[in-house]
Specification:
Elements lengths: L1 H42 L1 H12 E6 L6 E2 L5 E13 L7 H12 L3 H10 L4 E7 L1 H10 L4 E10 L7 H4 L11 H5 L1 H5 L3 E7 L5 E6 L7 E4 L3 H18 L3 E7 L6 E7 L12 H4 L2 H4 L9 H10 L8 E3 L4 E4 L2 E4 L6 E3 H6 L3 H11 L1 H10 L28 H6 L8 H13 L2 E2 L5 E6 L2 E3 L11 E2 L3 H17 L13 E10 L6 E14 L6 E8 L7 H19 L10 H10 L13 H5 L11 E2 L13 E2 L5 E3 L8 H10 L3 E6 L2 E6 L5 E3 L3 E7 L15
Parallel strand pairs: 2-8, 25-28
Antiparallel strand pairs: 1-6, 2-3, 3-4, 3-5, 6-7, 8-16, 9-10, 9-21, 11-14, 12-13, 15-18, 16-17, 19-20, 20-21, 22-23, 24-27, 26-28
């Protein structure tokens, strides 16, 4: 019995020990479980939540709405428009092979490419982004399960190639790749939108939400849409006539550095920038480096006049067209004898320019070249600017001063040259050229890190020096190599240039491959515009005075007329009579090739080129007028009396009439008279002057 009690006691202790052990194990297990849970919930919560979200949702970035780019008169040149992009949720597609074949027929995308996109993700896959409206409708008409649309933004350039080199272009993700689109991309681009796609365990899309998108800043440029159109049209005409490889036209306000127009050839359509060769997308006005030729003689004379080394009436012996410098014989383009300094510039004598530069001396000459901005970027607010080519003074050879004085052995860009000539036009102040006028948030101008503010101009020559050069540059137009640049109704000054290009085959200057140029301004007393014309390798006539000067004339007369700049010289009476007799433009200011659709319609309806027809009134004496095919018909001539040149021009353009402007002041006479019926495209000659005072009304008293 006692033994049984002992066994019972031992068994009880064993059971208790077992219970303690079990309890201890359970406690440890519980602590481990709760510890693990605490670790997962408190410490690793963020990591596992992120994993779950990656499995359950996908974030798709949507292109932002870029700001609008306007010209100076707030005409849109670049804008973002809403478009539809098609995407798929492959987990919902019943038959991927069938869906791929159906979509391929609509989108012209190989079926195997679409199937690969379906296989890349079960929750989201782009099919085709930024669809044209007709293709979006065709995809929607298929009514395929698992195929959806997302609204995005697409950059649209309503005027097509107008100012394309200034505007630039964007990639499919709306990132700027050229021009202002690239230079101000952080400001214009705005904040990208995001679409969050949710999926269940089977990777089936069941919900989505869109984050708020921030619109970019708007940009107002200094360009004028109409002046830009004039520049591009005249450049295109010159290229067609001369068969030049390339060319540039720049119109600048010399009094503040604002670029009113900048045109290049070849051109491109930024709506299809990828389809254009890289050469066409190059902004030659800021990137192309070339030897300026005789236009650089302006800098040579500026240094001499500013240092009081010579005067316009001083006479130099040009030695019948040849001079020796550092053992090298340099020949002139003509065998000149004795020439005054004024005639050296007017006749573009190389020998005369070399002798003047030798009097200045290489160190001073180099200082003035640098002061005019050559060898350094101008700081223009467009990407891709070249600094040009100017060897350091210590690297000049014995012949360098002679070569540089006549525009060889130095490389410049068109923007550098027109900036320098503008300094002569405005009295000796060098302004930074610019195309950005201001940035806006909505309609409110804003200041952002000085992007639209301009530095103070820098004086580079005395006002007296600039005045002397202006007078001599007028002589180039009146009696020198630039006679074909003479304007009807305005004074003008300028300088021709015919720079030989290096022949790659021989390494020597080519006698036929030249860059023909003309740079000038008008009117002389109060310059309103500076204009540069550059034509690369024209065929046939190839000198600047022969092919570039006429382009300056046509461009300047139209621009000055549009800007309503008062005429400062009388018109040629013969031309006035001819204009009334034949209906031709008396001075190139008729703006004949303007089409009202380009300026009066909304941007999306106003491409530079459209379906055009030639009216019967076009004659061989003037460029043929081009008007939209759907606007041919007769209209009533408006009453233009008492209106300014700008008002007359704008009224006529709206009605598809070609204004021929004669004189200055207010409109006093017009032919045909108001109320007559004429065809669209007809010329309306308007005489401007001081209106005669209206006679006072007199009351007659009758006696009985």
């Amino acid at each position: 019995m006692r033994q049984n009690r002992v066994h019972a006691a031992v068994g009880g202790r064993t059971t208790a020990d077992r219970m303690v052990i079990v309890a201890g194990v359970a406690l440890l297990w519980g602590l481990a479980v709760f510890g693990r849970l605490a670790y997962l919930q408190l410490i690793r919560h963020g990591d596992y939540l992120a994993r779950a979200l990656r499995q359950q949702q996908r974030t798709i970035e949507i292109t932002p709405q870029r700001g609008v780019i306007y010209d100076r008169n707030l005409h849109p040149l670049a804008m973002s428009v809403p478009v539809k992009s098609a995407f798929a949720v492959p987990g919902e597609i019943v038959d991927e092979n069938l869906a791929a074949r159906l979509l391929s027929g609509v989108l012209n995308i190989p079926p195997e490419v679409l199937e690969a996109r379906f296989a890349s993700s079960r929750s989201f896959a782009w099919i085709c982004r930024k669809l044209p409206p007709e293709k979006a409708e065709a995809v929607a008409a298929l009514n395929l399960k698992g195929i959806y649309f997302q609204e995005e933004n697409q950059r649209f350039y309503p005027k097509r190639d107008l100012a394309s080199h200034v505007l630039g272009f964007v990639d499919p993700d709306e990132k700027g790749l050229g021009g202002i689109e690239y230079a101000l991309d952080p400001q214009i681009r705005g904040k990208s939108g995001k679409v969050i796609v949710m999926a269940d365990a089977r990777q089936r899309w069941f919900d989505g939400s869109e984050a708020q998108r921030g619109r970019g800043l708007n940009v107002v440029l200094t360009l004028d849409e109409k002046i830009q159109y004039i520049a591009q049209r005249e450049l295109s005409t010159a290229i067609e006539k001369t068969h030049a490889m390339a060319g540039s036209v720049i119109v600048m306000n010399p009094n503040n550095g604002e670029i009113l127009a900048l045109a290049n050839w070849p051109k491109f359509n930024p709506n299809n920038a990828n389809g254009a060769p890289a050469e066409s997308r190059m902004n030659r006005s800021v990137s192309a480096v070339y030897e300026p030729g005789s236009t650089f003689k302006l800098i040579t004379l500026a240094a001499a006049f500013d240092q009081n080394i010579t005067r316009p009436e001083d006479i130099f012996d040009c030695e019948h067209g040849a001079v020796y410098i550092a053992g090298h014989r340099i020949r002139d383009h003509k065998a000149f004898g004795l020439l005054t300094v004024a005639d050296i510039l007017a006749q573009s004598s190389d020998v005369g320019a070399i002798k003047i530069a030798l009097m200045v001396g290489a160190p001073k000459f180099y200082d003035y070249i640098r002061a005019f901005g050559f060898g350094s970027p101008t700081g223009v607010d467009m990407p891709g600017e070249s600094r040009g080519l100017l060897h350091r003074l210590e690297n000049w050879s014995g012949i360098s001063i002679g070569s540089v004085s006549m525009g060889q052995e130095i490389g410049v860009t068109p923007i550098q040259l027109i900036t320098a000539v503008s300094a002569i036009a405005n009295g000796g102040l060098l302004y930074r050229p610019h195309v950005v006028a201001e940035l806006r948030r909505g309609n409110r101008p804003i200041a952002t890190d000085g992007l639209s503010s301009q530095p103070e101009p820098r004086r580079i020559v005395r006002p007296e020096t600039a005045a002397t050069l202006r007078r001599l540059m007028e002589g180039v137009v009146l009696r020198g190599t630039g006679k074909l640049a003479r304007l009807d109704g305005w004074t003008a000054a300028g300088k021709t240039g015919s720079a030989q290009k290096i022949d790659p085959a021989t390494g020597r200057y080519s006698p036929t491959q030249l860059i023909a140029s003309f740079t000038g301004f008008a009117p002389i007393s109060n310059p309103a515009v500076t204009i540069l014309i550059s034509l690369d390798s024209p065929v046939g006539l190839h000198e600047g005075g022969q092919v570039a000067a006429p382009v300056f004339k046509r461009t300047a007369e139209q621009v000055l007329s549009y800007l309503d700049v008062p005429r400062d010289v009388p018109l040629n009476p013969r031309l006035i009579r001819a204009s009334y007799k034949e209906g031709d433009a008396v001075d190139g200011t008729s703006l004949e090739d303007f089409t009202p659709a380009d300026f009066s319609k909304q941007p999306e309806e106003a491409p530079i080129e459209s379906n055009l027809v030639k009216p019967k009134e076009a004659t061989a004496h003037a460029p043929e007028v081009m008007i939209p095919a759907d606007e041919v018909g007769e209209i009533s001539v408006p009453d233009l009396s008492g209106k300014t040149m700008r008002e007359v021009t704008e009224m006529c353009l709206r009605l598809a009439l070609n204004p021929v402007l004669v004189g200055s002041g207010l409109a006093v006479e017009q032919t045909p008279a108001a109320g007559n019926e004429v065809r669209r495209g007809a010329k309306i000659t308007v005489q401007f002057g001081i209106p005669a005072p209206k006679p006072e009304k007199r009351h007659t008293r009758f006696r009985r």
